[in-house]
Design a protein that fits this description.
Elements: H1 23-35, H2 40-55, H3 58-87
Length: 88
Amino acid sequence: MTDTPQQPPSKKRTPLRPIRVDDDIWEPYKAICARDSTDATNDLLGHIGRRILESGTPEEIERYKRGVAAQEERRSRVIGARKKKSDD
């Protein structure tokens, strides 16, 4: 079962994953991330990746690697579009 409907690869967007975190946890966490020159998204993605690589089955690790490649491709399109738009 997937969280979002399947879209063609060229139109697929990274789904949002809402989580509930108390402000007294979230705000210090964001401040620490900022001091470490990162953001919560990248920090959490790093943690998720480490967990999968440490504890995942070969199939889960392969799926993770495909997901990382797809996410990097989507990010490069967004960054390219933003750059093109700022050049206009």
